[in-house]
Amino acid sequence: MNSGFLSRVALRRDAAVQAIAALLVPQGEGRQHGAAHHLLWTLFGDTPDRRRDFLWRQTEPAHFMVLSAREPVDTHGLFDIESRTFAPVLKEGDHLRFLLRANATVDRKVPGRARSQRHDIVMDALHRIPPGQRAQARDEVVPPVIAAWLARQGVRSGFCPDADTLNVESCDMLRVPRVRETGAATFGVVDMTGELRVTDPVLFMSALLGGYGRARAFGCGLMLIRRAR
């Protein structure tokens, strides 16, 4: 797959939809992401066995950017949607600006266990620092850890990030309530911007449409790009 659809999706403002807006867009970022996880499925879940083939990020409550293999279809009349074909013409050496929200993780071997254990990369790095020094060291630790993670993504995804332009805008933990279970799904979310150079256009396009990192069902993994000046 080398093309898709990029869409702006917003909950409609008419009275019928706004009457149930509090149910569709609850208070709290974690609850909103949990609700959107299900809500956006209404645009793509046409069959019971359909697998998720779209990425999304919330830009503000009830407003989303969505990158999908299929054009979204609003069968319930809940959204205003602006869609366009996403098929950028890229070549090796192209320089692009990017915006990415990612759940970045690393797998660590656990002695005595066959399976590795997954860790948030920031928490994994901070764990090596004495507890009393972690808050002070955080600003120094986060940028190189994120830069190294992004470079690894680039090696297998057809791009080379420019470390000098990388800006980590935020690094937080998101708690998303579980619908059928007690507790919440908790994971790290990093917002970053910067520039990159395309090294393999075909591989890069495939990776863009597939997403980066984990928690893609909860609004992570979508990289937005534009030409660098």
UniProtKB/TrEMBL annotation:
<dbReference type="Pfam" id="PF08798">
    <property type="entry name" value="CRISPR_assoc"/>
</dbReference>
<protein>
    <submittedName>
        <fullName>Type I-E CRISPR-associated protein Cas6/Cse3/CasE</fullName>
    </submittedName>
</protein>
<dbReference type="InterPro" id="IPR010179">
    <property type="entry name" value="CRISPR-assoc_prot_Cse3"/>
</dbReference>
